Amino acid sequence: MKKISIILTTLAILACFCSAALAGEPQDRLKSGIDKVIAILSDPAMKGPAKRAERQDKLRTVADGFFDWRELSRRAAAEGWKKFTPKQQDDFVTSFSELLQKTYVRKLEKYNNEKVNYLGEQIADNQAFLKTQVAMKDKTIPINYVMIKHDQWMVYDVVVEGVSLVKNYRTQFAKILSRETPDTLIQRIKDKIAALDAGKNVDDVAS
Amino acid sequence: MHRLTRVLLATVALTLLSCVVALAATAPTGPASLAEKPATNMLLAYGDVDIWDETGQIIKKPANGDKLTKSDIAAQTPDPLEGWNRMWFGFNDKLYFWALKPVAQGYGAVIPERPRIWVGNFFHNLMFPVRFVSLMLQGKPDAAAVETSRFIGNTAFGLGGFADVTADSKPYKPIGSTEKDLGLTFGYWGAGNGMYLVWPFIGPSSARDTVGYAGDYFLTPISYIHPWYWSIATKGYDKINEVSMRIGDYETLKEASIDPYEAVRDAYLRNRYKKIND
Questions:
Q1: Where are the domains of chain A?
Q2: What are residue A157's phi and psi, to 5 degrees?
Q3: More confident: B53 or A175
Q4: What confidence tens digit (pLDDT) does each residue in A128-180 have?
Q5: How many other β-carbons are positioned within 10 Å of the β-carbon of residue A145?
Q6: What are the boundaries of each domain within chain B?
Q7: Which chain B residues are closer than 8 Å to A175 by Cβ?
Q8: Looking at chain B, which residue has its C-alpha nearest residue A103?
């Protein structure tokens, strides 16, 4: 009787370890990406305003390796995507991903040793939904990632506090596309990037 | 004693009022659900059916041509006063950049982060009546009880709420989020947003949340500070303390969006929808 209980306990403990260690492919991939970002941000050699450009370059390279910009842009443009010509589609992907990289890489700079917890994943066909939590000083922020596998697992949507990045843009783009042409939309994205590049205060950026 | 009676009376009055509102709000529309409403705005429906909604729930076979999650339906809340709302959005935007942000930055430069967290804890602890009443009205006595013990613990052993001594004590069974207000309670009962509204100083809201906000006012102890300008000043200080912890969030959203007004509207409605179900 005692032996059986020992065996059972051992098995139970092993099962615990295995389930912890056996995170699926999408989570491993997401984690390696987030770890790379954290490594860059906490590297003492990369700190300080002098290294800013180099640091942001590195972060963008990592982001390019983990975000499926085309999938993300296609879903954000939604019904509008079909009305784009192939050239407009390419243009749209390039400028939209540039805008996202510019603004959110800047946001990452605020990183202050917050810990990322992985709360689990669901996989269906070639898509995966991952739940994570970032522990801030005074609260935790739930961040979910949606990934898709074409060649390898790539992130195409980020849901922060119940707000989907793709859907937030879909709302904006749908509104603009209902009144204006695809070219105007792309031009507006480019104008926004130019305004940010010119170092304009966010206060002045057209509302 | 006098103040306590007033808070109690306010609670009773609110319960009655909210019942009426909930009835009025649910009767014509009914709770939003995936299958009921067809996609009115076809631009929002898109080619790919999502497998999961925003919380990771598997979307169960959406009806033909209906590809909206409940969160999408919340985000489609009508905005008939768009021009008016945009005006106040611009006003709040300037208020943030010209007044709130500089003051909060100065305050944050003088007061280190840790005391600011304590102040945040204090005000959060003080808002206990809002959370308690909302949880009770949502029929969640477990969560209300946990919230009460947190309040007592933090008030008695956390220097009146400055220290969050109960943060690490987890209840025996999961109780969901206790961060509730009356607007979320009406939503929990099935009331829709009605329409989107932007208020000066307060920010994005909806018809439902406005009624909830008015109710929350009476459940907020700070509202009873006499004379009224000290009440306003205290609320202003709470706001500045909070903003000093969040500088950069609004800037990023505004920088990254093509139409900041729409981005904030969408984010507000979806975030509120999530909080209802947390």
A1: 26-197
A2: -150, 145
A3: A175
A4: 889 999 998 778 899 999 999 988 999 999 999 989 999 999 999 999 999 99
A5: 23
A6: 2-276
A7: 259, 262
A8: B256
CA torsion through residues A8, A14, A18, A21, sign: positive
CATH class held by domain A26-197: alpha beta
Contact B269/B206 with Cβ under 8 angstroms? yes
- Place A6 in a pLDDT band, splitting at 50, 70 and 90: low
Helix axes A182-197, A165-177, angle to 10 degrees: 120
Find all residues with CB under 8 Å of A85, minimum gap 6, and list them.
A182
Residue numbers in A near B113 (CB within 8 A): 137
B146 contacts B171 by C-beta, under 8 angstroms: yes
Task: Give all strands (DSSP E) within A51-139, no chain letters.
Answer: 115-124, 127-135
Interface test with A, best of B42, B43, B254, B274 (most A CBs within 10 A): B43
Give me the residue from A138, A188, A202 closest to B245, CB to CB: A138
Strand partners, A117: A133
ipTM: 0.84
Nearest Cα of chain B lies from the Cα of A39 at a distance, in angstroms, of 22
Q: How many other CB atoms sit within 10 Å of the CB of residue B155?
A: 17
**Cβ atoms within 10 Å of B114's Cβ, excluding its own:** 8
Question: For residue A7, what pLDDT is reported?
Answer: 64
DSSP annotation of A67 reads: B
φ/ψ of A78, rounded to 5, equals 50, -125
Q: What is the dihedral of CA B223, B228, B230, B234, to 10 degrees?
A: 30
Residues of A in contact with B58 (CB under 8 A): 122, 124
Give the span between the Cα atoms of A185 and A178, in whole angstroms: 11
User: Which residues in chain A are contacts of B40 at CB distance < 8 A?
Assistant: none
Structure confidence at residue B124 (pLDDT): 95
How far apart CA A183 and CA A158 sit, in angstroms, is 26
Q: A167 to chain B, minimum CA–CA distance in Å? A: 8
Cα–Cα distance list, B231 to B129, B225, B242 (Å): 17, 5, 17
* Chain A nearest C-alpha distance from B110 (Å): 18
The per-residue pLDDT for B230 is: 96
User: Closest chain B residue to A189 measured between Cα atoms?
Assistant: B258
Tokens of B60: 């169960």
CA distances for A142 relative to A28, B56, B167, B268, angstroms = 19, 12, 17, 16
| Listed residue (B178, B119, B170) closest to B148, CA to CA | B178
CA B38 centroid distance within chain: 28
Report the percent of chain A where pLDDT is more than 90: 47
Question: Inter-chain contact B52–A122, Cβ cutoff 8 Å?
Answer: yes
Please state, in angstroms and rounded to a whole number, the distance separating the CA atoms of residues A171 and B71: 12
